[in-house]
Specification:
The protein is of the alpha/beta class. It has helices at about 10, 20-30, 50-60, 75-90, 105-115, 130-135, 155-160, 180-195, 220-225, 235, 255-265, 270-280, 285-305, 330-340, 365-385; strands at about 35-40, 95-100, 120-125, 140-145, 165-170, 200, 225-230, 245-250, 310, 320, 325, 345, 345, 360. It has 2 domains: about 10-50 and about 285-385, Aspartate Aminotransferase, domain 1; about 50-285, Type I PLP-dependent aspartate aminotransferase-like (Major domain) (Aspartate Aminotransferase, domain 2, 3-Layer(aba) Sandwich), CATH 3.40.640. The strands form 4 sheets. Strands 2-8-7-6-5-3-4 form a 7-stranded mixed sheet, with helices on both faces. α5 crosses α6 (about 130-135) and α5 (about 105-115) crosses α11 (about 255-265). The structure holds 4'-deoxy-4'-aminopyridoxal-5'-phosphate (PMP) and glutamic acid.
């Protein structure tokens, strides 16, 4: 082997993304002829509405093919600020909004703007796989905070050290689809104020609420002043591949985060932003339909799973995930589903130790495929029970 210079520990030491790797595994298995039922990827699986595609094409034909403003198109920033006022009551100026290539980059931009080497950031567990790695990419240290069913404020207070600078929260939660309550968020905000912490609030599933009310820390002026809001078009409109998201920042901080955009991706393609702007005009028509579809699938699959031996499955209040508890080791169980049933799902422990003993199902496939997957899983569960 010829010798080679070293790679940076920043990337060699980074945990691969379990969600992205599973999607690639499924893609490769399908390319080799296997018919896998995919319940693993958090891609809503709905085609982008043709009118949104048309808006992008129009922009392309009109010459929107150059560098644009690094912070994003003014009209889109204004539309997102208006949307926040309606959704959470938070008063943002367009200058407080940064348009990013997806919610994942909004998260990275938020952390790039606040984390210094050695800083600790509390990350929810079970929680989305990219929180910890994004903190590490910024030189920080993620500290897991278990919050499967609720946020335990005593546990949170005990996890805060003099090095803690921020807390990442996500609602509705990936992978459990739980919606954080206003009371929980009030408690967190009080602690964040006492210890002068940032809150990075990831609300990429907030448009897919089925029951209850969505609560957000930026709803109060005090919360808004220390919260960085990560949002995305991916889940709301079935636009994962467009890479369009946003970061809402406290008044007066935008210029600092903007520098990271200027020196990294520069800007999101203008035609993608025009598509997003058009998508927002179709919200009332499209999103209730998506919600109803995901809800029907959740109700169907949760009932099926709850009736199977070895499973306990609650019906969450949002989104398109289910996170049933399983009797066996979750990693072994998910591997058996893939190898023996051709059903791809993710073990709960991929989302941190507090997710162990669960499996995440993403109900983003057709109703027929979902019914088929439930039949296969049910058959295996019955066989396992009679064998034990
Ligand atoms: N946050 C959460 C909780 C997610 O599940 C995802 C899904 N990828 C994202 C952020 C980012 O999504 P995107 O980059 O596609 O906007
Ligand atoms: N967030 C989605 C998921 O959890 C998509 C993949 C990713 O970006 O992690 O499956």
């Amino acid at each position: 082997m010829p010798s080679q210079p070293r790679l940076a520990a920043r990337v060699t030491g980074l945990k691969p993304s379990a969600t992205v790797e599973m999607t690639e595994r499924v893609r490769a298995a399908r390319a080799s002829g296997r018919r896998i039922i995919g319940l693993s990827s958090g891609d809503p699986g709905v085609p982008t509405d043709p009118r949104i595609v048309e808006a992008a094409l129009r922009a392309l034909h009109d010459g929107d093919t150059h560098y644009g403003p690094a912070a994003g198109a003014p009209a889109l920033r204004a539309a997102i600020a208006e949307r926040e006022a309606v959704r959470t009551g938070a008063a943002y100026e367009p200058a407080d909004i940064l348009i990013t290539p997806g919610g994942k980059f909004a998260l990275l931009a938020a952390l790039m703007g606040i984390v210094q080497p050695g800083d600790e950031v509390l990350v929810p567990e079970p929680g989305w796989v990219s929180y910890g790695p994004c903190v590490r990419l910024c030189g920080g240290e993620p500290v897991a905070l278990a919050m499967l069913d609720r946020i335990d404020l005593n546990r949170l207070a005990a996890a805060i050290t003099p090095r803690t600078i921020a807390l990442i929260l996500n609602s509705p939660v990936n992978p459990t689809a739980r919606v954080l309550s206003a009371a929980e968020l009030d408690g967190v905000l009080a602690l964040a104020e006492r210890h002068n912490l940032w809150i990075v609030f990831d609300q990429v599933y907030s448009d897919l609420l089925h029951a209850g009310r969505f609560a957000a820390p930026q709803s109060s002026p005090a919360g808004q002043a220390r919260t960085l809001v990560v949002d995305s078009f991916s889940k709301t409109f079935g636009m994962t591949g467009w890479r369009l998201g946003s970061l809402a920042m406290p008044h007066g901080t935008g210029r600092s985060f903007l520098r990271f955009m200027q020196h990294s991706v520069y800007c999101v393609p203008g035609f993608v932003q025009q598509a997003g702007l058009h998508a927002l005009t179709l919200f009332d028509e499209l999103v209730p339909r998506f919600r109803a579809m995901f809800r029907a699938r959740q109700v169907f699959a949760a009932e099926r799973l709850a009736a199977m031996p070895g499973f306990a499955c609650a019906l969450p209040d949002a989104g398109f995930y289910l996170f049933p508890r399983v009797a066996d080791d979750d990693v072994a169980q998910a591997a058996r589903w893939l190898d023996e049933l051709d059903v791809a799902a993710l073990p709960g422990s991929a989302f941190g130790a507090a997710g162990a003993g669960h499996i995440r199902l993403s109900l983003t496939t057709s109703e027929d495929d979902l019914a088929e997957a439930m039949a296969r899983i049910g058959k295996m569960a019955t066989q396992q029970e009679s064998a034990s």
